[in-house]
Structure formats: C-alpha cells, structure tokens
Amino acid sequence: MPLPAPGPMSLVPFVSVEAMMKIVLEQGIERMLIDLARYIEDDFRRWEQFDKTPRIAAHSSEGVIELMPTSDGRSYGFKYVNGHPRNFQTGRQTVTAFGVLSDVETGYPVLLTEMTILTALRTAATSALAAKHLAPKGAKVMAMIGNGAQSEFQCLAFKAICGIDTVRLYDIDPKATGKAARNLAGKGLAVVPCTSAEQAIEGAQIITTCTADKQYATILTDNMVGSGVHINAIGGDCPGKTELHRDILTRSDIFVEYSAQTRIEGEIQQLDADHPVTEIWQVLAGKNPGRRDDKQITLFDSVGFATEDFSALRYLKDLLGSGAGHQMLDLLADPDDPRDLFGMIERYGKAVAAA
C-alpha cells in the first residue's frame, strides 16, 4: 500500500544553490543583472506602495543576523541574511541568505529560494542602477576596492548597465585581487591589479568600496577623492562599520535607499541625524535630478534594502514561470479537512503501519 502523496497545496517551488547556478548560466550573468536592475527600478518607482521598516538585526561581536521584510499589499517577501567577516577563516561565506515570497491574500508562500547568489546579483544590479543616474557621463573606469565575493558581480554589473570598460582592483589580500582578476579574464573588461587603494583610484571616475571588516575603517581618506567622481560605498552596512572618512561625506551629495535604515547602518551614521540625503527612489521616479554637474561628488551609501530583495524574488518567480529550473518542496501541511491537522497525522501513521 503506497504512502499518501503530499496534498496539492503542500508543495512550494524551491530553488536550490545548484538550480540557481544553472539559471545564471542559462540566462547569462550580464542579462540577469540587466533584468534584475529593471525589476528593482520598477519597484523603486512605486516606492510608496511598500511597507518599509529598517531590517531586524541581531548583532554579536562576530557579525550580524538579519531579517529583511516588505510587502506591496499583494505579495510579501523576506530575506534571512547574515554578515560574519571572519567566516572565511573557517571556509565559510561571509554572507549567506535565503528568502521567501508569499501571497498576501492566503499567506501561503509561493517561492522559497537560496539567496546567497541572488543577493550578490541584486546588490550589484542596484549599485549599477544607481550609478547609471549618478556617475559622471561617459565614465569608463571603475576602481574596485575590496575583491571578495561581491567584486566580480559589481564589475560585470557596471559593465553591462553603465558601460565601463576598465576595472582597477585592490584588496589588502593580494590573493583576493588575483582571484578576481582570474575570474574577470575574458569577460570584456580591461583588468588592472593594483597594490594600493591610491593606485586603484588613479583615473577612475567611479570608486566602489566593498570591504568586510566590522569596524570603523577609512578605506578612502579625504585627500584621495577629487571632484567629479561617483562613490559606490557598499561595505558599510551595520552600526559601527564604515569605509569612508567623514570629510568625504560632507563634500558629497549623498543618496541612500531608505534613510531611516541607512542612518543606523551606513556611512552617514558618522553624520548628524538631520544631515540632508536623497533617497534613490526619488531620482528613479524623476523627482530629483541626481547628478547635476561634472564637478559634483555623488555618493551612493548603499546598505541594501528589503524592496531590492522583493524585486529579486519577484524576478525569480517570473523566471520559474517561464520554465527555469526548480523543484517542488513538501513544505506546507495540507490535510483533507483543513480543521483536522491532528487527524492527518493519525491517518499517515495508519498508512505507514499498513505499508
């Protein structure tokens, strides 16, 4: 006697790490970055439809574990994500994540997915989307300071979305720079390994900082940053963790995702609570011009916000609808009588005994 199969409403589409890698290879990473940026921009343009709250964080001396929820009233999404800078010492990722997208009407999840890879993609897509509106016109050279797990995604996103053709790489660990240079070989970029941050920013119109240490750091000092550049600061993303000297901030026009969260976690935690910033949705919706002139220093103080993950989940769900790989996970109890959960267990026990 066969055991009872999962009920029709018990199965949820699940995208594993292996399935995500296959999707990236089938779609092509630059195409995915471009498409993700489009979804992220669409959702930023309807910013006022979303529930917004700073992410819920549990901090420790070793790192942070966070939940990032949001809803547009029709769908609800959240991401679980950690940030543990010392993990690499034991062979673990600094950042790992998974996420869920649910139907608000029923509360049932419609997608469960790995988000370690997907977060790397959406972070890079968001950075390049912002730079498309903030970077100096015709920018071709980017300094990539911090050559860890996010660096290659950033470089390829700026190539695909902003049109850069040269990346200048620097990391305090030369092995990380070598890794990034090897991974980017043959990807259509001129790759220049550098031995200092000062060397990396030479001739760069865009400077991306993406370091991991959970501390107040000064990756860029004030004298390193000249007029007319765009800074994409993505490493500072929790209280007590920054990358830029405060004087750089006071010289820059600062753009953020959600100011209530960024004032806690971003570079601007160094500034007064009323220091003026512009939320990037206002630029994307045409309410703010973004870059105004060639001498302006623009700074995207990016810490990552839940709507970006929502966009990534929405994008992935649409991909699954077009046939992208996934499996169905028996995740939800689906008794014959929704009021008889206990009886479902009893009936399963009898079926097991009879099998």
How would you describe what is shown here?
With 355 residues, the protein is an alpha/beta fold. The strands form three sheets. An eight-stranded parallel sheet has the order 9-8-7-10-12-16-14-15. It has a seven-stranded mixed sheet with strand order 2-3-4-5-6-1-17. A two-stranded parallel ribbon has the order 11-13. The protein is elongated, with a radius of gyration of 22 Å. It folds into two domains: 11-117 and 308-333, ornithine cyclodeaminase, domain 1 (2-Layer Sandwich); 124-304, NAD(P)-binding Rossmann-like Domain (Rossmann fold). The protein contains eleven helices and 17 strands.
Q: Could you say which overall geometry the principal axes of the C-alpha atoms support?
A: elongated
Query: Biggest sheet: strands side by side, in what order?
Result: 9-8-7-10-12-16-14-15
- At CATH's second level, what is the architecture of the largest domain? 3-Layer(aba) Sandwich
CATH topology of the largest domain: Rossmann fold
Number of strands: 17
The whole-angstrom Rg is 22 Å
Helix count from the secondary structure assignment? 11
Helical content class: 25-40%
The first-level CATH class of the largest domain is given as Alpha Beta
Query: Which class do the helix and strand fractions yield?
Result: alpha/beta
The end-to-end distance, rounded to whole angstroms, is 5 Å
Q: Let me know the CATH homologous superfamily of the largest domain.
A: NAD(P)-binding Rossmann-like Domain
- Low-confidence spans: none
> What integer is the average pLDDT?
94
Please provide the ordered H/E string of secondary-structure elements.
EHHEEEEEHEHEHEHEEEEHEHEHEHEH
User: Hey, roughly how much beta strand do the residues contain?
Assistant: 15-25%
Biggest sheet architecture: 8 strands, parallel
Q: Total domains, how many?
A: 2
